[in-house]
Amino acid sequence: MILSQNTSTIRSLNLLLMVCINLVFGISHDLSDSSKEPCILKMTLRNFRSILSWELKNHSIKPTHYTLWYTIMSELDDMYTVENCTNTTRSFCDLTGMWTQMHETYLAMVEGFRGSTSLVSCKHGFLLAMDMSFEPPEFEIVGFTDHIIVTVKFPSVFEKELQSAISLIIEEESEGIVKKHKPEIKENFSGNFTYVIDKLILNTNYCVSVYFEPRGQETVIKSPSKCTLLQPGQES
Q1: What are 164-205's pLDDT values in tens digits?
Q2: Where's the Interferon/interleukin receptor domain (predicted)?
Q3: CB 63 within 8 Å of CB 2
């Protein structure tokens, strides 16, 4: 049934009421199961920004704009709208600084409109520690005669709880041998991070990949490798 945009608040309150009933009566309901939802919602850390994106499964439905609602499950509060993601024409929302608690479950609802008519509504629950994907950071390498300097580009502000949920991995590969480096990063670190891979062999080609390893997840997204041949005369 096609609904007017004025019923969006009622829809969000009904969704919140459903969640409350499930919690009170102990009904088992996997809010992260999106198999029956008309959209695919994903949460991704991209360039250190927390991005919620969505894609309609039925491409014949073509909303002109979307509105995002969300609430925090443990608070059972009213659903909020996000100023930059209300009546937006984009199919994503930047939630950096808003969704910050890695062990909270956030319930999101995206509603798509054409004019003032609601065409589609999707909901999804996200436990960030388990449901967020972590894209690799940008990095550069410089090779010398016996070592490689790896510079990883971090933002000026890196959220503390997010930092505690992931480990930075620098992977070195040469002649089929892979070595994993797990450098320690100080709390509240900001700015570029520099790491030295030393005790390397001259006239040897080395490839480096950098990625995040989230605690509690098995899936990682590795960066494309960057390679360098260590040659004489490349003194630091």
Answers
A1: 889 999 999 999 999 999 998 877 677 889 999 999 999 999
A2: 133-229
A3: no
Q: How far apart are CA 185 and CA 152, in angstroms?
A: 11
Which tokens hold the place of 125? 């629950």
SS3 assignment, position 13: helix
Q: Domain residues of the chain, as ranges? A: 39-131, 136-230
Q: Is the dihedral of CA 105, 124, 91, 111 positive or negative?
A: negative
Whole-angstrom Cα distance, residue 99 to residue 164?
15
Domain pair 39-131 / 136-230, same fold: yes
DSSP state of 113: E
Long-range contacts of 17-24 (CB under 8 A, 24+ apart): 19/73, 19/76, 19/107, 20/76, 23/73, 23/76
Per residue in 123-151, pLDDT tens? 999 999 999 999 999 999 999 999 999 99
Pairing of strands 117-127, 3-4: antiparallel
Q: Give domain 39-131's CATH architecture.
A: Sandwich (2.60)
Total H helices, total E strands in the chain: 3, 16
CA distance 75 to 18: 14
